[in-house]
Amino acid sequence: MAATGENSGSARSRAVAEVVELVSTLIRFDTSNTGDLATTKGERECAEWVARQLEDAGYTTEYVESGAPGRGNVFARLPGADPSRGALLLHGHLDVVPAQAADWSVHPFSGAVQDGYVWGRGAIDMKDMVGMMLAVARQFKIEGTVPPRDLVFAFLADEENGGKWGSHWLVEHRPDLFEGITEAVGEVGGFSLTVPRPDGGERRLYLVETAEKGLGWMRLRAKARAGHGSFLHEDNAVTILAAAVARLGTHRFPLVLSDSVAEFLAAVSEESGLEFDPGSPDIEGTLAKLGSISRIIGATLRDTANPTMLNAGYKANVIPQTAEAVVDCRVIPGRQAAFEREVDELIGPDVEREWITKLDSYETTFDGHLVDAMNDAILAHDPQGRTVPYMLSGGTDAKAFAHLGIRCFGFAPLRLPPGLDFAALFHGVDERVPVDALEFGTEVLEHFLLHS
Question: Which residues on neighbouring strands pair with residue 150, listed in sequence order?
Fold first, then answer.
């Protein structure tokens, strides 16, 4: 059903006109998530500001703190023309990873607009999408636009810590907030990847996230007899742990081609002429020809287990009784049991392991009305574009919503310059988003929501 509104033609220009300032202001809220409740800050202030922007446009909002003081979340619902249809959830997280100002060209919480970019921590992860959501939501309400179905806008806390004090808490304790929602759209999808064509031209592929690897943070622990550092020690906890960590960190897990990755590689091959043979020993070398995005795609071909933290000892001349490590594990859909068996073989019987955080993988198919609406929205604003599915090597709040039976996609549209190292900007220094990409994304998002 077509969307209606008092002046739907002007809604786009209104949203585009304010999206850059909205994103810049969002960045100026320091919502750094340290993973520690005592030191994570800024989410409440940012969430309250978001609520005011929505309320000024006419929405009734609900502010919810997800299990701890200051972990602010904001919800707003826009009724659609057909209330019998399942609602669509648009979700974005307000928190960001920390940043060291001394390392940056501009202050990471300045929201500076210069050289054609909006700069700052969260510019692409994911205050760009939050700003686009907010701009379009405001314009729909102000212009009296009625979308085809109910839209639920959710601005969330704690995604950068796995959503324990955000989406997962909300799903467990406030499932009523998601009542009637059947599909969801969130981050790390809809961005363009420019690939060369055999005829000398180029094609922009817009990557829609249809899958993401499981996320698990694992603690390893070795125990042995404590003693004097000058004695001979055959069972040193540090040595036992270090050997296990080295085996795990250098291990290469088997290549597994999921449906989402296979479809992505087939599309890239069709457009570029590159051959991605799963049986080739140099498939990663072929992927490297795609540029910086190859780091994300390459990580979806196999499980990974990367040691990230070590802790042992309290004095130079004391052999400690215990040594611990933390490992960041990302697991391909359907591989969890096999992955854990492989890990146990690698670390051996003298090392204990436990999950600090364990979030499931997710995968859906690249089909249906919502996918068609994404493709149509891209083509309406980039006739040379093409949407393709892909798997995210990381994780998003979609992992929580999938537990409610909600079908989830990543679609935060951005048309990016071919030479921009987009992958390096995630959690990187000098994170920034092109101004014209934000404006393009706002137009695409509006078109998508009007036909979803």
Answer: none
Element (H, E) at 261: helix 259-272
- For 232, counting Cβ atoms within 10 Å of its Cβ (0-12 exposed, 13-18 middle, 19+ buried), the class is exposed
Sheet with 322-331, side-by-side order of all strands = 304-312, 322-331, 214-223, 351-359
In whole numbers, what is the pLDDT of the chain averaged over residues? 94
Tell me, what's the pLDDT at 9?
Answer: 43
CA distance 30 to 110: 9
What does the pLDDT read at residue 3? 54
Task: List CB contacts of 419: < 8 A, sequence separation 6 or more.
Answer: none
pLDDT bucket at 276, cuts 50 / 70 / 90: confident
Alpha carbon separation from 209 to 80, 261, 391 (Å, rounded): 25, 10, 6
pTM, entire model: 0.92
Helix axes 127-143, 8-28, angle to 10 degrees: 140
What local confidence, expressed as pLDDT, does residue 7 receive?
42
Query: Region 412-435: what's the mean pLDDT?
Result: 95
Instruction: Count CB neighbours of 107 within 10 A.
Output: 15
